[in-house]
Amino acid sequence: MGAVACAQQEMPPGGPEDIRPPVVVATTPGALEMVTDLETDIRFDFDERISERVPGGALETAISVSPTSGEYRVQHGRQSLTVKMDGGLRPGLVYRVTLDAAVSDMFGNTITDPFELIFSTGGELVPTTLAGEVWDRITGRPVSQAALVAIGSDSLVHRSTADRSGIFGFRYLPGGSFNLTAFQDQNRNGEPDSTEVQGLTPLSIAVGDTVLLELSILTPDTSAANLTGTEILDSTTVILLFDDFLDYEGGTTGIDVTISSDSAGAPGIVELLHETAYIAWAEEVTDSLAILDSIEAQELAEISSVAARAAADLAAATDSGAAGDSIVTNDSALEAALADTVLVATVGAGVRPQALTPRGRPPALPRLEGSTAGPTADGRRVLPGRRLIARIDALIPFETEFTVTVSGVVNMFGLAGGGGEAALFREVVIDSVAIADSVAAADSIPAGDSIATADTGVVIDTSSVALGGRDGRR
């Protein structure tokens, strides 16, 4: 029985659990060192044993050498990684060697941030910097872990990788002109292949400068944008739908749209707008109408107040037996209101300000699945759409077949020649509920049931009086 005594709590074999990733404790060459021996190998030493396994399988994928001056091999040591350059280092360059966040220890703890080593083989160590953000041109969101290559006029390839937030940086670049490409390196070959999402921008940078930019990427496209259908937004507005995102920045000058019919006269195009431009235009019109409504409401409120006092003064004058006399006041606003035949009716006929006239707002575009055209929520970017909006010069008749023909459309990838034909048909839709409501509303306050009043010169608006039944009695 003694053999089954309570076991003692002990540390697991091998000591405490290791939860800390490996740390680079030394490099060869050293940071910002001037290297004269071009056969020098590049080496990273760690504080513990590291695993031979990295994402992608090959150790070469864990290290990026910039600029690329030839092929290189990565050798694994117990606590080190060594980069051997085929043909050695090149003279007169500033090298930036990046150890990606891919190296782990024997317990699977992976380094959390890339480690960057800068050294020179004769190039001037000036901290010229190119940095920015890679983002998706369709969604507006940052692109995590995007690969970047900057090719200079000397054909050397400088490399970098965006972090999880899409932020990238090239440090100690030489001054000059570059073509900067960002892409999603799906096959991990370090090159932007024709099927990979990518974006290109040319730029120039002077020695010692810091250039910040935003680089958008987009799926390559080899086919033009095709017209797939039409939709009637309202009686004078037509939506043209395409199977691809459109280049709104190029405008609509080169786009031709015609509407034709064999049985009726066809309307003409007054204005053609990209989806993004229509959204901005509709918002501007809506805001301006809201301002006009607010101004008109304030003016009518002031007129109503003045008119009410005018009616009260008139009633007082009538009660005092001076109804036939002219009314004299010390209120300039009151006198102006009484004299204004446009805004205020003759005092003897009563005073009633006009009601606000409803103003028609531009209709909002229906939501399109897979598309969020227009400004982003933070207002930093404008996203493309797949629709054109045509405003026409006549009402679209019901039950008439039209053909819409479009040409000269350019997609977001810059490919021209888009367009096509699609049918346009405005169908009569009978809303039985709306008809029933309109019938009931027409009989809710019969015209003969207006409230009779003595002729005091004040008109009473019966719309504010609650009626109890069809005859006006409760």
Labels describing this entry:
alpha+beta, elongated, disordered N terminus, Immunoglobulin-like, 30% strand, 4-stranded antiparallel β-sheet, 24 strands, 4-stranded mixed β-sheet, 474 residues, 3 helices, disordered C terminus
What would your notes on this structure say?
- Helix 1 packs across helix 2.
- The protein starts with 23 loop residues before the first strand and ends in a 32-residue tail after the last helix.
- The protein has 3 helices and 24 strands.
- It has a domain at 24-217: Immunoglobulin-like (Sandwich), CATH 2.60.40.3710.
- With 474 residues, the protein is of the alpha+beta class.
Report a brief summary of the structure.
The chain is an alpha+beta fold and 474 residues long. It is built from three helices and 24 strands.
| Overall geometry | elongated
In quaternary terms, these chains amount to: single chain
Which radius of gyration do the C-alpha atoms yield? 38 Å
Largest sheet: 4 strands, antiparallel
